[in-house]
Design a protein that fits this description.
Length: about 110
Amino acid sequence: MVVLVVSGMRRAALGALVAVCLSACVMGGQVRMGPVAKMLKPQPDLCGAAALIDVVGQPFTLLADHQLVGPLRILWPGQEITDEVVPNRLNAEVTNDQLILRLSCG
């Protein structure tokens, strides 16, 4: 059983924390977190990343002009992510200037 003591935490932040805890429980507690470079393993192109190669180096907002196969995850410098893989999810690694560095699936 997990008991949370919340003092001054916003309801949305608490909801996000609960969602992360529940997803870890559902997945057997095997979700790990770490830097993007270590957590993104090469995946087959089930998200259509290869078809979007022309947006690399451009502002990530250009992705809104494209029909994506699945969900989109924007990954900022220094951000940590889970090792959860969603095969049709497009990962867009961006710079602090909001330019796309890399596109990958997972």
